[in-house]
Design a protein that fits this description.
Helix content: 55-70%
Protein name: Divergent PAP2 family protein
Structural class: mainly alpha
Number of domains: 1
Keywords: Membrane, Transmembrane, Transmembrane helix
InterPro entries: DUF212 (IPR003832), PAP2/HPO_sf (IPR036938)
Pfam families: DUF212
Length: 154
């Protein structure tokens, strides 16, 4: 039996790990090749951001009560994180991709020589999530604490 005080922490961390590992399998399913980099990457299905904060909120709700102030706080925190993952970070990634394409076009079409090292920098364009990826993370975050619950209750 694990100490009940660790239930929210372990739920959140395990939900994050499950989502990150699941990304590797989803990538394999989509492409037919293994890429273990997905275990550490942001973006992709399911969202580890969403799974982590959802698991934390649910575990807090179970432990402290769904009518507690700390549950309310974690729910608002979760909504902010999921909104950010789905909108702000997703569109930031889109802007990076557009900027990289513009630089490439300027080099090839106009022959512009961009020697400054900043133009050579490889930026990661997958920063955020599509809505379905956030939803997938949400469901992972609901499932993990429910599976862990028997390990923490007497």
């Amino acid at each position: 039996m694990l100490p009940a005080s660790l239930f929210p922490l372990i739920s959140a961390l395990l939900a994050n790990l499950v989502a990150q590992v699941a990304k590797t399998f989803v990538y394999y399913y989509r492409t037919g090749s293994w890429d273990l980099h997905w275990v550490l990457m942001s973006g992709g299905f399911p969202s580890s951001h969403s799974s982590t904060v959802t698991a934390l909120s649910l575990a807090i709700g179970i432990q402290e009560g769904f009518d507690s102030a700390i549950f309310d706080v974690t729910c608002i925190f979760s909504l902010i994180v999921m909104y950010d993952a789905c909108h702000v970070r997703y569109y930031s990634g889109k802007n990076i991709a557009l900027t990289q394409q513009l630089i490439k076009d300027l080099k090839t079409m106009v022959g512009l020589n961009l020697d400054d090292p900043i133009y050579q920098e490889k930026l990661k364009s997958i920063l955020g999530h599509k809505g379905i990826e956030v939803l997938g993370g949400f469901f992972v975050g609901l499932i993990v604490p429910m599976i862990l619950l028997p390990m923490f209750i007497a």
